[in-house]
Amino acid sequence: LNVIGMRRRGWTKEEIHRLRSAYQAIFFGRGTFRERVEEVAAQYGENPLVAAVVSFIRAGSRPLTMGIRRAQPGTEL
Description:
Blueprint: H1 3-8, H2 13-28, H3 33-44, H4 48-59
Helix pairs in contact: 2-3, 3-4
């Protein structure tokens, strides 16, 4: 996420935090991608910013690139 850009555009810390939490849950959570999207939609559905991301993903008009999260030494994903 472009947090610096969001700050420059006047997003509040709460908005950024909520979108970041939803992003982490969608792309790095447990379960299938579809399950994670639906879980985030249920959990954050009232938030218009998160709803826009979920709507974009559900539309499927563009392919998404999944990030790779590397484990820190001594931890397990």
